[in-house]
Amino acid sequence: MMNVVTNNKWIGQRTIRPDGVDKVTGRAAFAADTTMPGMIWGKVLRSPHPHARIKSIDTSKAEALPGVQAVVTAKDIVDFPLDKSVMLGIQDMRWMCRNVMAREKALFPGHPIAAVAATSEAIAAKACELIEVDYEVLPWSIEIDDALKPDAPILHDFVKFEGKPSNIAGRLEVKKGDIAKGFEEAEIVVERSFTTRPVHQGYIEPHACLISVAADNKTTIWSSSQGQFMVRAMTSYLTGINQSDIRAIPAEIGGGFGGKTIVYLEPLATMLAKKSGRPVKMVMTREEVMRATGPTSGSKSTVKIGAKKDGTIVAAHGIFYLQAGAFPGSPIRGAVGCSFAPYDIPHVLSEGFDVLSNRSKVAAYRAPGAPIGAYAVECVLDELAEALKMDPLALRLKNAAKEGTKAAHGPVYPRIGYVETLEAARDSDHYKAPLGKFQGRGVASGYWFNAGGESSAQVNITEDGNVVVTTGHPDIGGSRAGIANICAELLGIDYRRISVLIGDTATIGFSNLTGGSRVLFASSIVVTQSTEKVIHTLRERAAKIWDIDPEAVKWENGAAHPVSPNAGQFEPLTLAELAEKAPSMGGPIGAGVQLNTVGAEGGFGTHIADVEVDVELGIVRVIRYTAIQDVGRAVHPSYVEGQLQGGVSQGIGWALNEEYIYNKQGKVDNPGFLDYRMPVCSDLPMIDTIMVEVPNPKHPQGVKGVGEVPLIPVMSAISNAVHQALGKRFYSLPMSPPKVLEVIEG
């Protein structure tokens, strides 16, 4: 850890996580643990076809089956006409209403066609089999190249590109300078093309919910999501029930990584509960998760970078095609905006294309789009360094963005720690360690925007002088532990006296999603302001007892003190003492703040990967890994390290094994963890971390989001390492054993 601030008691300490005991003892309640008297089960009938017009649906046999309580089809979900977008955050309700239930056409294998609620799961599943659907099967395309062919089947006739119906749903570009002029100045140019496959977020807990709807439409939702306010809003839009009539309660969440920022089951279960008059529970199987929820995009990219012979990069051009799945909305912003962001390049053009195909709609996955863009850019930089006979870190250092650099995507950077991450990598023991036969070392860097946004908090002092903090966003990255550290620091009390709760939509003010590396950044701002209000009240109460001016009272080490002997000679009044006196001195002590937070700064990281290639089996093993990141202020270092290690673990899977494999019928052929090869412990090395602390001056504790940057450099660092081990380059992921053997033997 570098630039460490040591004058804090709790901020920066490795305190025991507040949810730890519940998680390891099994007491924590997840969405699938929820039950209610009279509860029935919901199941979904899904399309077997990648592309088919739905001519008719006959549910009469299913409805007649004993035990069936309700059946729902597209006619029960609010229809949003196609000619006008209806945005909720970054999601368009035109696509969401058609994603949760197929309307005109089934657009991917697994697309929901109908849903059934029955007294048991088995009866609900049997009823789904009894639903008769008349399909007109249509031609389909799965891959980007197929979807872009002149004669490709068009998914949506109204989507037009350059005036014609197209599977290109949108284009985004950022630019700076004049790339034609830049490439004229270049003395060496490297241009390469790359492909990546769709990979799933891989959360261990499947989507699940339990929903009760009363006769007056009062609706209660228990579900696994990255935002209960998102669940409330989307369910309201898609069912027509007023938001004020819906209470969404967040359960503990068994992973999300961006994949639980939209709804799949909640609108269906709500309508089944409304129709049946019974609470409805729905839990996806792993196969349903893999077939019908968002992976991230597959991609094809071309990156061209030009430099002077001294290593000064003068021009960069990136073209990124990302799969959206069946509906518009691939994360081209991350690929286009982040790919060149670590570098000070005078001439940049970065273009992204949103490509439709007959796959499930993509969802966010940890720095959406940015790992795809960085994979291409960082591999080209490695080839450029090789051509220039420069050390790859030296090339990056020479061109590194720093304070005052104007990024192609807009901002002028304030004080940032990217150079420090490169220097820490260069100076590390890892970078200098010797390598053996068929071993290689690669480096890569990455950037993510980070975000602020709406957050709410309430801080209340309990009658016995402890503290309850309520915030409005699910904790998927350690935010409760960080909040406890910050609140304890401000109040000057032991962190174990702080309870941190996640409020539901009826008990806390609006709070945006857990995503974008925003939660600790945003929630600590509103918690800090709430705590400061509480401290002001405590000082006023002490001043009243001592009959002095509140300005003559300071709060220190968990108690009120006179600011100086001149203010009076009084024994300190502790938090517990003031809480005890609260009923007779103005009542309960508490404060809340609701704010649209600003001041988030982007994050930068640099990674070093060592690999060893088994040339007989084609297996690439990562044998050593170091992730270095500018983390702002590490409020809870163990959680920061965990974020870095988790991102690396996911990137190793993306680089070496994970991919959706489709069969000739256009269906996912590996919809389960047996065949979809996520890394397990034996696939991973010990992952070292170096935390560079360059505090964010716009935040009261210096916080920067850390959760997304750790995934971005991984695939390129490993690819560059494999090149050094074998002397051969790979331009597609994953670098799985058959592909590695093909390159070795070819």
Automatic annotation (TrEMBL):
GO terms for molecular function: iron ion binding; oxidoreductase activity. Residues 25-139 form the Aldehyde oxidase/xanthine dehydrogenase a/b hammerhead domain. It holds the Pfam family MoCoBD_1. InterPro entries: Ald_Oxase/Xan_DH_a/b, Ald_Oxase/Xan_DH_a/b_sf, Ald_Oxase/xanthine_DH-like, AldOxase/xan_DH_MoCoBD1, AldOxase/xan_DH_MoCoBD2, AldOxase/xan_DH_Mopterin-bd_sf. This is Xanthine dehydrogenase, molybdenum binding subunit apoprotein. It comes from Bradyrhizobium lablabi.
